[in-house]
Design a protein that fits this description.
324 residues, seven-stranded antiparallel sheet, mainly beta, 22 strands
Length: 324
């Protein structure tokens, strides 16, 4: 049979290996019911503690887990800041099993308990705990401007509320700010298969210039691109990120950059940040606008941006108190 050009192309195409189908995006669960319906990972993930240890169990999807063990207690609640110990684990039935081997802790998590032995062979039994920020639900002081209280999104450019009356990321305040104090509360999805900057990513930009990162960094190292980091500038003193599907707080004291009459900067902007009520930055200087900022540094004030980085992040109880 004589092959026509069209028939030849069709036969050649049929003989080539099929292109890999695009991988589906990792699921992002927004409620505990959704997370539990997907399997036992959500109930096993979380914080466990007793008087001697604090532990964080991180769900990594595909039946994988990581155990992070802290001596003395949890970050911000007893941890002595000695080196953390990490052990990989896997789901066996309804338990997360961690086999650390010689010189590493081993254990299993199930039913609200984490039992095992530490690196010296000493047994431990930790109970699952559910922490709340000490500034959760903080009321605006006299003179503060309420930017979002759940009633409407009128103070935000293209602000969108979900059916729970929470403000979705991807918006900027209509008001511009100078120096002052910001309080807000944020909610991260449970996204066990997400990795790096795709694990519940957003950001809070002061003057649309200086970003305090929002990310599901529960149990991670606490880098400058993780939750609480002043993006690419300063890492937090502690990784105070709680597990996802928990309301968390930022309390940020912002002092804007100063300029002389010729428009030359004479002093960097500074940020003092409390994450879940714990101080993680103390008057940290920021020498330029951070990555993906909406505005370059300059003499004019700018808005608050709640960044949309492709993940469903929600905010509530946002207020701003100008400096006196």
């Amino acid at each position: 049979m004589k092959l026509t050009p069209i028939l030849y192309i069709l036969l050649l195409a049929a003989s080539l290996p099929a292109a890999d189908a695009p991988k589906p995006k990792p699921a992002a669960y927004l409620t505990e019911a959704e997370a539990r319906a997907a399997g036992p990972d959500f109930d096993l993930q979380g914080e466990y503690a007793d008087a001697n240890f604090g532990a964080q169990v991180i769900a990594l999807g595909d039946s994988k887990f990581r155990l992070v063990l802290h001596t003395g207690g949890l970050p911000g609640a007893g941890w002595d800041k000695s080196a953390k110990t990490e052990v990989e684990g896997a789901l066996t039935g309804a338990k997360a099993i961690f086999k650390g081997g010689e010189g590493k802790p081993s254990g299993e998590a199930a039913g609200g308990l984490l039992t095992g032995t530490d690196a010296t062979g000493k047994a431990f039994k930790l109970i699952k705990v559910f922490r709340q920020s000490s500034t959760l639900g903080a009321k605006p002081p006299a003179g503060a401007k309420i930017l979002f209280d759940g009633s409407n999104s009128e103070s935000w450019q293209n602000g969108k509320l979900d059916d729970r009356k929470f403000l979705r990321c991807g918006t900027k305040s209509k008001d511009v700010i100078q120096s002052g104090t910001l309080h807000l509360e944020f909610f991260l999805p449970f996204k066990p298969l997400g990795r790096g900057q795709d694990r519940g990513n957003s950001g809070v930009y002061l003057q649309d210039r200086y970003e305090v990162q929002v990310l599901d960094s529960f149990g991670l190292k606490g880098e400058n691109n993780e939750c609480g980091g002043i993006y690419s500038k300063h890492r937090p003193a502690l990784n105070m990120c709680f597990p996802p599907l928990t309301w968390q707080t930022y309390d940020i004291e912002f002092t804007e950059a100063k300029y002389d009459a010729a428009g030359m900067k004479t002093r960097d902007a500074t940020l003092t940040v409390k994450h879940n009520g714990v101080l993680i930055h103390d008057k940290a200087p920021v020498n330029s606008a951070t990555a993906s900022a909406g505005l370059k540094e300059g003499t004019t004030p700018g808005p608050i941006q709640l960044q949309d980085h492709g993940n469903p992040i929600f905010y509530r109880n946002i207020w701003w108190q100008p400096a006196k």
